[in-house]
Amino acid sequence: MSRYVRPYGDTTGDGMVQTSFTLPIPFGPKADGAAQQLANKMGMDPAMVVHSHPIGDDFTFFVVYGSVKHIVDMDDVKVVEREYPLLTPSEVNTTLKKVLRRKLVVVGGCIGTDAHTVGIDAILNIKGFAGEKGLEYYRELKVVNLGAQVSVPELVRSARAEKADAVLISQVVTQRDAHILNTQEMSAAFREAMGDKRPLLVAGGPRFDPLMAGELGVDRVFSRGTTPGEVASYLVHAMQEKKGVAA
Amino acid sequence: MALLDLDPKVVATARGLAARAAEPVVSIAKAHTTVAVERATLRLAGITGADSTHRAGDVPWVNRVIDTVREQCGLEHGVVLPAFQALKEHNLGSLTELAEATAAGQIQFKIPTGKELTAARKAATSAVAKGLKTVDRNRVQRDKLVAKWGDPAQRPWIYLIVATGDIDEDVVQAQNAARAGADIIAVIRSTGQSLLDYVPEGATHHGFAGTYATQENFRIMRAALDDVSKEVGRYVRLTNYASGLCMPEIAVLAGLQRLDMMLNDSMYGILFRDINPIRTFVDQRFSRQVHARAGIIINTGEDNYLTTADAVDAAHTVTVSQLLNEHFAHEAGLPDHLLGLGHAFEINPRVPDSFRLELAHALLARELFPDAPLKWMPPTKHMTGDVFNGYLLDGFFNLAGVLTGQSILLVGMMTEAVVTPFLSDRDLALQNVRYVLNAAGSLAEDFRPAPDGLIVKRAHQVLGEAVDLLERIVDDGLLNAIADGTFGLMKRPADKGKGADGVIEKAEAYFNPASDMLEAQA
User: Fold this and answer.
1) How far apart are the first and last CA of chain A?
2) Residue B176 is nearest to which of A56, A115, A129, comparing CB atoms?
3) Which of residues 394-433 of B touch A (CB under 8 A)?
4) Chain A residue with minimal CA distance to B208?
5) What is the dihedral of CA B328, B331, B332, B335, to 10 degrees?
6) Chain A positions in Cβ-Cβ contact with residue B424 (cut-off 8 Å)
């Protein structure tokens, strides 16, 4: 692999790319000119507006081909690597089967007075979120969704009764830092009740910062936009780590 | 014309089994009411608005009343008797005033007897009748407007989704979509609304990946579509969702605001939302009775089975669900022409002969339900983000739709699983549909699958598997089958799930004028 690369159309180094976009202007020669200018500013030079057509009276759609002047320096490519790989549901299932030889038990709910189950349901319900199925869909996961307004003692009791490997709590309401205080209360209760044998604790909510795990006393914090697949992949990763330490 | 040569005896067997499987569930549905059915009844009787001073935010007045009645005298006699008794006793002008007084702690509800009972029955009946009259008027109005502006020129009708979260933006998108050729606009609901045990109030502008279903949002969108219908010269239909914990209430609001189609599946909430099975079947029956009254076409959700299970292996579960949905719908008074039974193009494109298998499944649905406006749903599971490939797949989906005579075509987006569609994505998707309709819209005329070919054989096989599964469900009992994970892999016991505490066994003297009037229509 060479250090410097450019897009490949049909000849090495030609820099050819194809793009399409819509501008909020009526169809016509002036619109094509506008598209040409945008493409130039995007670094496409020469740029060819190969197609345009009106969408209603006020919009025009364009397809543009052209050569970009940019060069990629592979030495500067830094990829932020998640410390665990994203797995497909079947990979999650097979890995768990191998690592645990039983189903992984997940207990989840909204604690405190929070009645917003949107987050926990998006992660747990089979319906899922963003085109991904929720954790219920995974054959090797046993999901117990306690729903809304679960008290901390109730959560600890359920986690113990179900022999939970992981506890997922969701917090949407943030008035007077309720989400932080509730989560700290929860993690303290688990430490007190179960010590080192406590399940993996995961907190999620739109106002959490992933860097807050230590402060909250949990193992992992997920923020806005998290999908079920990310959570499942994390659980697999954490289980492998745990087993690794034990072994 | 029949192309599959299905054995009428097998078809009759399948329908008979579906009826037997459904029977015990219908009995349970008749013997229970739910907080949502009672709320829907009060909404028909005219209650509106919300308590904006409550510390939990806006709580609809109807929820305040129902919760208090339940606390003070239970709901097993229905809400209307204590509610209308109190209305009279305190000489209040409307149910909303009653709600305000309830919130102020001024009302002590009780089950009326003797003369008070007679008076409460009468007052409740006339209030509910008024609500149903509005629903009836809307139905007549729809017929009038369809006669005036016309139905779409072609079948399938073109169904497009908008989902901005802001009703005002939805209006812009919906009107543009109608101008570009959409015959039906569906407004997707905000994520998680199905699990709210109340219907939000007013016009809303902040949904998550969709817009809240509220009475005011319904009104705004229907008015906007009336405007654009006039402009484009065809009646543009409006779709929303009567599903989740407020299914009966949303059905009522749809009837009151002249919505035209509602997503309404007999088992979706149980399987995919973990809503209590009994709650779902009770709410389901009432909501379908309302839809029947309102002339609303229901859309069932069989596509969901294929997104969780393999579309070839699970093909027969779609047929089983369609037969159950058909039976539950007929039982609730919905005629065939209001049954938008669902199915979807979800076979892995890498499977050999995948298109032929899709044709077999689609034709099977068409021939099993010849008079139902079938809803044909596009690929989602195998849309990968490669928008070019996705566009081709959507083209084949459109072709299968016209070739097998589907009635409602949900337009596939090449951005499925990538982003919410751009303006241009929707435009390209509609071009795709138009091209296929124009190039091959009448191809069904020339389409004769070979009598012993793959398509015919496959359709017979799927129907056979459906009959086998229905037999197992009848033996097992539908509720047990659901509990055991027969559908969509999910195990849903009858005593578990969300909203279970909102189910109430009816007392001998239970009274609900809405149920009585809706029952009488069937």
Assistant:
1) 40
2) A56
3) 416-417, 422-424, 427-428
4) A118
5) 90
6) 20-22, 55, 59, 61
- Contacting residues of A for B488, CB less than 8 Å apart: 126
3-class SS of residue A183? helix
Domain that holds residue A193: 89-243
Q: Single out the residue of B220, B168, B152, B163 nearest to residue B186, CA to CA.
A: B163
Which of B179, B308, B380 lies closest to A56 in CB terms? Answer: B179
**DSSP secondary structure letter of residue B353:** T
pTM: 0.86
Out of B179, B422, B490, the one facing A136 most closely (by C-beta) is B490
Number of structural domains chain A divides into: 2
Domain boundary residue, one of A74, A105, A122: A74
- Asked if A49 and A131 sit in the same domain, the reply is no
Q: What angle (nearest 5°) sits at the alpha carbon of residue A141, between those of residues A140 and A144?
A: 150
> Do the Cβ atoms of A180 and A216 come closer than 8 Å?
yes
CA distance A89 to chain B (A): 11
The answer to whether the Cβ–Cβ distance between A131 and B416 falls below 8 Å is yes
* Whether residue A95 sits in one domain with residue A58: no
Question: Could A131 and B272 be called an inter-chain contact, meaning their C-beta atoms sit closer than 8 Å?
Answer: no
Whole-complex ipTM: 0.84
Task: Render each residue's pLDDT in chain A as its tens digit; 247 residues.
Answer: 789 999 999 999 999 999 999 999 999 999 999 999 999 999 999 999 999 999 988 999 999 999 999 999 999 988 656 688 999 999 999 999 999 999 999 999 988 766 677 788 889 888 777 778 899 999 999 999 887 778 899 899 999 999 999 999 998 776 678 888 999 999 999 999 999 899 999 999 888 888 888 899 999 999 887 889 999 999 999 999 888 755 4
Residues A9 and A112 in one domain: no
Tokens describing residue A89:
């549901």
Question: Do residues A37 and A93 share a domain?
Answer: no
Return the H-helix or E-strand segment holding A55. strand A44-55
Residue A84 inside a domain? The answer is no
Is A20 within 8 Å of chain B by CB?
yes
Final residue in a domain of this structure, among A51, A74, A97 = A74
| Structure tokens, B388 | 């070019």
User: What distance in Å separates residue A142's CA from the closest CA in chain B?
Assistant: 11
